[in-house]
Amino acid sequence: MSFTSIKLEHKQQVLHELRNIKQQFADRNWFPGTSGNLSMRVGDFTADQFHFAITASGKDKSVHTAEDFLFVDQSGAPAETTDLKPSAETLIHCEIYRLTGCGAVFHVHTIFNNLISEWFGENGAVPAQGIELIKAFNIWDENAEISIPILPNFAHIPSIAELVENVLDPAVPGILLRNHGIYAWGKNAFEAKKHLEAFEFIFEYLYRSLLLNKSNSN
Questions:
Q1: What is the C-alpha separation between 195 and 207, in angstroms, rounded?
Q2: SS3 state at 92
Q3: Strands 37-46 and 174-177
Q4: Distance separating alpha carbons of residues 31 and 81, to the nearest angstrom
Q5: Which positions are annotated as binding Zn(2+) (predicted)?
Q6: What average pLDDT does range 95-119 have in this prediction?
Q7: Residue 200: how many other CB atoms lie within 10 Å
Q8: What is the C-alpha to C-alpha distance for residues 86 and 54, in angstroms, rounded to an integer?
Q9: Is the pLDDT of residue 5 over 90?
Q10: Dist. CA 38–CA 88, nearest whole Å
């Protein structure tokens, strides 16, 4: 499906959902500075042709303007004439969409996801076990255990994007960049938000557990 054939009301609905999500995350201070990015797919999907809306680069996400988002294609290039620049990390979104066929990808920077990604960075993944919020990923095993991948935080974004396929786990809808932030995705905005909130709970839980264990050992 070409971008021009996608119905206007569908594009507007995607932008409306993204604005609502952006406001909720901004209220939680999940976009310090102008960091973070949000995207939602629009129209039909094939692995080599799809479009999505994504936050424009360098915008204050605590306010709403007519230039907060733009539409891009599967390569991250603008799908229509615009002066806006897509987020610097658009290529990572492209890879996640291509590999998963998901409907939304949300990326935020928080203190807890930065600290946990640095703590476990040399291991290449964050281990989590027996935490209730693991159920948010539709994993219902008793004392369930997951491993959340960590990728190096290269300044060269294409170098990060090319590593995504090697670590992506369909059962765990998230990837951390070390000392940077979390990418979480889902079949739609509701599911991606649910997954992101679960990851953030897990990261805070693990951080506070590490502090508690250290305190008890002293």
A1: 18
A2: helix
A3: unpaired
A4: 27
A5: 107, 109
A6: 97
A7: 19
A8: 7
A9: no
A10: 12
Q: What are the domain boundaries of the chain?
A: 3-217
* Mutual angle of helices 8-27 and 189-217, in 10-degree steps: 20
The percentage of residues in the chain with a pLDDT greater than 90, rounded to a whole number, is: 92
145-151 and 181-186 strand pairing: unpaired
Instruction: Report the C-alpha gap between 149 and 147 in whole angstroms.
Output: 6
**Which letter does DSSP use for residue 167 in this model?**
H
Give the DSSP H or E segment for 177.
Answer: strand 174-177
pLDDT the model gives residue 4: 85
Nearest to 136 by CA among 56, 200, 206: 200
3-217 is a CATH 3.40.225.10 domain: yes
Q: Residue 128: helix, strand or coil by DSSP?
A: strand
Report the binding-site residues for Zn(2+).
Answer: 107, 109
Element (H, E) at 55: strand 49-55
Please check whether residue 44 is in contact with residue 1, taking contact to mean a CB–CB distance below 8 angstroms.
Answer: yes
pLDDT level of residue 56 (50, 70, 90 thresholds) = very high
* Binding-site annotation, residues: 107, 109
pLDDT digits (tens, 9 = 90+) for 136-185: 999 999 999 999 999 999 999 999 999 999 999 999 999 999 999 999 99
Tell if the pTM clears 0.85, that is, is over it. Answer: yes
